[in-house]
């Protein structure tokens, strides 16, 4: 009976943390406070685990329930993309959940291990909570995570608290939240054991909250003071909401579909140009779904020249998503068309480097005819050369230093930080989230992009095929928003701003490896201390 009660309490802890995660992840201001207690039920359950096996079981279970509830939209999207059975997509997704969310397993095991080594020594009561938090953050850094999610992302809903991401990114916010959760666990355990209310954990939680709000308020004021009221750049963004291109091409013919895409974008862009002058026009990722500059057919060559002629006639620089060909290697690319120093039309391409596994790119070591036969939907793009700033000349001779990002690349802090360190003045993100339309994914993707602007304190123009397109300021606030599954176009006015430096912008995703190194050091120290204590008592 005692064992059953133990399991019932453990399962309740997993269920409570999973539910709190789901609410906290909705990014609503009223749910921000849930981040301070979301992990507490599960942490308390792990503390009651009588064995390492039970602790690992709780970590594994949370990885599965978290994946199912928070990312339950993903298997359906993959099923629609690959035409595989939904049950198979769900099965594979849940099977790999412990790998994708490995931080739950490592944190649960190290917590059990540390409490076993510390024993009843109250002087070392701080070791298990600190080691748990460090291992959690360190594990998230080195393990493969499809969506690069972390607990700190939930603080985006607080305009003040999210400013702390310019120190150590969203992982820094995660570390703070984990420590606050540990404080509430300690308070709850003290009350449950009838030892009274522990003041130290409450004071520590209060200090962490004051530091977070205080730093965020100061930093937010600095960001607002640095932004000028007059726009430095006027950008026209087109979100045509043309989806299911492959299906339409099979039914109508490729040329007819490309013709419709271009005509729609020409018309929507002309409407923007009639509303006033633009410094730059942006179309989304792969909007021109064939190679540009290296045509595969006579029709393709004619369409290439048509786009060049349209840009030259309108006199507005254009950035658009297309494919770029280098021999047999094809890349997902952003094409820049604008005036050169001599006044003629110049062309430059940025090639996407961070590709989504399988759907966009298959590693050479895994690629084979057998794999392609089993999964014909796998992508064939090649990886680009890495983060690269593009000098893009606008009308009047001004050179705009752009950090291009294509879709998935917006999830990687160090990648974006490297482009900004090269001197970029603007983050320019092209994306196509139509595969996930109608799910939380487009808004979650936008949230990730917003963190890149906070970390680097750089404004961002984000243009997608079907939403959510937006302008993101250096404080991470998005405006000029075009919703999911909506055809629209908008003029985004990018204000001038003084460059504000940040630790996350200078060092990228630095906290993960530091946390991992500290956790290894603390773990080794704890083990040696335990060995020495046993030797002394022998």
UniProtKB/TrEMBL annotation:
InterPro entries: Apolipo_AcylTrfase (IPR004563), C-N_Hydrolase (IPR003010), C-N_Hydrolase_sf (IPR036526), LNT_N (IPR045378). It is an enzyme of class 2 (transferase). It is found in: Cell membrane. The chain crosses the membrane at residues 7-24, 30-46, 58-78, 84-105, 126-147, 167-188, 200-218. Its EC number is 2.3.1.269. The keyword Cell membrane applies. Gene3D superfamilies: Carbon-nitrogen hydrolase. Residues 233-496 form the CN hydrolase domain. It is a multi-pass membrane protein. PROSITE patterns: CN_HYDROLASE. SUPFAM superfamilies: Carbon-nitrogen hydrolase. It holds the Pfam family LNT_N. Keywords: Acyltransferase, Cell membrane, Membrane, Transferase, Transmembrane, Transmembrane helix. Pathway: Protein modification; lipoprotein biosynthesis (N-acyl transfer). Belongs to the CN hydrolase family. Apolipoprotein N-acyltransferase subfamily. Catalyzes the phospholipid dependent N-acylation of the N-terminal cysteine of apolipoprotein, the last step in lipoprotein maturation. This is Apolipoprotein N-acyltransferase. It comes from Corallococcus praedator.
